[in-house]
Specification:
Layout (H helix, E strand, L loop, with lengths): L2 E6 L6 H12 L8 E5 L28 H4 L5 E4 L2 E4 L12 H17 L3 E6 L2 H8 L11 H7 L4 H11 L1 H6 L2 H4 L2 H16 L16 E8 L2 H17 L2 H10 L14 H8 L5 H23 L5 E5 L5 H13 L2
Parallel strand pairs: 1-5, 1-6, 2-4, 2-5, 6-7
Antiparallel strand pairs: 3-4
Length: 333
């Protein structure tokens, strides 16, 4: 039976640090680590965007291609404390990236890890990416239609919903109030509906790397909201101290301007008005912390729906011991 460990939860809870600790705690020695990390983070896929996305790479960390089958696909990894971390630097910041692109990159990574009798440790806070990789999501591989998106971008939310209702009344009726007011989700739903109409009978599917024998354990990290907000603030200040501003300026010098989708990422979009002189540093920090905290709350809302997750409060004194005990009991069972 092949074991798969999942560590998820909101930002700033120490998921990657925990993953490294657990891999070492389960292994017999540093030279024979039993697991490798696969990042499940929609922000960490971009090259040259290290500090702002929280990759926390040690000084001098090198991106290498240790597996020939993945090197052909231009997929490599970093090592932190001896543990391989895959899923970083999958694309240029100038490229558009989606769940479908992530799946196409992450699936061969997981297969490669399993083929070497190692345990994949899926780590991240991007709920949709995690669900797509673990469970699969219908229509995730339906391609983007940029011409359609540009046309739809001029429509109001009401007009978008009406358009969807005409194309797929069942899908429109199934949307909750929040989704009905979300232009991005409405546009994607219309995109899928139109693709289906043009491709009657055609299916798009991706074979996931798991089989019936795969044994998953889901660990979730959380904290009371005041604790979480304080951790987010410390993290934001820390990223600024270690050179986040310099990282953004280098991206801009490399031609990656504010129009690219990657630059709409948390942190990068928050520093924009500061660099343009429209707000001061204190205002920028408050704006960034506020957006990260709002994102963390959305992450919790998403993950709370998954009843497979065993939650641990990182503000409790013995949380790490309890996590280690839970993981070891599962792994050696």
């Amino acid at each position: 039976m092949k074991k798969v460990l999942v560590i998820c939860g909101p930002t700033a809870t120490g998921k990657t640090k925990l993953a490294i600790y657990l891999i070492k705690a389960l292994s017999l020695g540093e030279k024979d680590l039993l697991g490798e990390i696969v990042s499940v983070d929609s922000r960490q896929v971009c090259q040259k965007m290290d500090i702002g996305t929280g990759k926390d790479l040690p000084l001098g960390a090198k991106f290498t291609y240790p597996e020939d089958s993945l090197k052909k696909k231009k997929i490599g990894c970093y090592q932190i404390s001896g543990v391989k971390i895959w899923g970083y630097d999958l694309v240029s910041p100038k490229e558009d990236f989606s769940v479908a692109t992530y799946l196409k990159k992450a699936t061969p990574i997981v297969r490669n890890i399993l083929s070497r009798d190692k345990m994949p440790v899926l780590v991240g806070g991007s709920g949709l990416y995690l669900k797509s990789l673990v469970d699969g999501i219908p229509n995730v591989l339906v391609p983007r239609d940029n011409n359609l998106r540009r046309w739809l971008s001029d429509l109001s939310v009401g007009e978008l919903f009406e358009k969807l209702a005409q194309l797929d009344s069942k899908k429109a009726a199934s949307l909750n109030l929040s989704d009905r007011k979300n232009p991005r989700r409405l546009i994607r739903a219309i995109e899928v509906a139109q693709w289906r109409a043009r491709n009657l009978g055609k299916k798009v599917s991706l074979v996931l790397p798991w089989d019936k024998e795969s044994d998953f354990l889901f660990i979730g990290l959380m904290a009371p909201l005041p604790v979480l907000k304080n951790r987010i603030k410390k993290r934001v200040i820390g990223r600024l101290r270690v050179g986040f501003k310099k990282e953004v300026l280098e991206l801009l010098r490399d031609g990656i301007d504010w129009s690219f989708h990657s630059m709409d990422t948390l942190g990068y979009k928050n520093i924009k008005n500061y660099l343009l002189g429209k707000i001061n540093k204190k205002e920028m920090i408050e704006d960034w912390v506020g957006d990260e905290f709002a994102y963390a709350r959305r992450q919790m809302t998403w993950f709370k729906k998954d009843k497979r997750i065993i939650w641990f409060d990182i503000s409790n004194e013995d949380w790490l011991k309890e996590v280690e005990k839970t993981v070891k009991n599962w792994y050696y069972s």
